[in-house]
Design a protein that fits this description.
The protein has helices at 23-26, 31-43, 52-61, 69-74, 103-114, 125-133; strands at 3-10, 14-16, 45-51, 80-83, 96-99, 118-123, 139-145, 153-154, 165-173, 176-183. The chain is of the alpha/beta class. Bound molecules: NADP nicotinamide-adenine-dinucleotide phosphate.
Length: 186
């Protein structure tokens, strides 16, 4: 069982533009193939976590309030913790748990729910940084797009040196480079 940050990012280390757009990602040819590798990855995932900006992006981009069954199709066995201090709309029928509890407490609940499957931290970067600060991030899988944005939501706004990160694989996926790192304790 591992806790994994799996995300796409730009070559200059951003998850999204300053106004939270991902259009730069969908413009890259072969982005659909990268999405199908996420389907394989999801099969091994037993719990997910994300911040409220990421959740609200999914709600809006995929019209999930009007089409709630999509969530169940994508994430049939993945209870999801959404970190927020606000009351957010709920996708009907989805196993979504809003929380503002410390990440270590939430991580323990996620481990219990996931059993022997992995945990997917979807982002954003600071939330994943909170898990890393607590020593609760085992691996990062970053799919780099041939794009620079110059500014935006950062991949991982932390000072993490080579003593903590070990490159374990590089996969060439069309226009994308998938880099996998093991993450050591702080
Ligand atoms: N490229 C990709 O594959 C990819 C992957 C993931 C995300 N994204 C995008 O990247 C952007 C990330 O946005 P973001 O950096 O703003 O991150 P985010 O983590 O999605 O959202 C940040 C929000 O999460 C809540 N939060 C974080 N830590 C918390 C804690 N400990 N307790 C309670 N609430 C907490 C706060 O929400 P409240 O203000 O509600 O309290 C905070 O404002 C989004 O546009 C997203 O769509 C892209």
């Amino acid at each position: 069982m591992a806790t994994i940050y799996n995300t796409a990012a730009t070559l200059d280390g951003f998850l999204a533009t300053t106004d939270n757009s991902l259009s730069w990602l969908f413009e890259v040819s072969g982005a659909d193939d990268a999405e199908s590798s996420i389907a394989d990855f999801l099969a091994g995932i037993g719990a997910m976590a994300m911040g409220s900006t990421t959740y609200e992006w999914l709600l809006e981009h995929e019209s999930l309030i009007d089409n709630p069954t999509k969530w169940q199709e994508w994430y049939p066995n993945q209870p999801t913790w959404v970190f927020t201090h606000r009351d957010l709309p709920v996708v009907e029928g989805a196993d979504i748990r809003f929380t503002r509890a410390p990440v270590a407490e939430v991580h323990a609940e996620m481990v219990a729910a996931a059993g022997d499957r992995d945990i997917w931290l979807m982002g954003g970067g600071d939330l994943v940084g909170q898990f890393a600060d607590a020593g609760l991030l085992d691996r990062m899988v970053v799919t780099i797009a041939p794009v620079t944005l110059g500014a935006g939501a950062p991949l991982l706004p932390r000072d993490m040196r080579a003593s903590r990160l070990r490159l374990v694989s590089i996969e060439h996926r069309g226009q994308f480079a998938e880099l996998t790192y093991d993450v050591g304790a702080p």
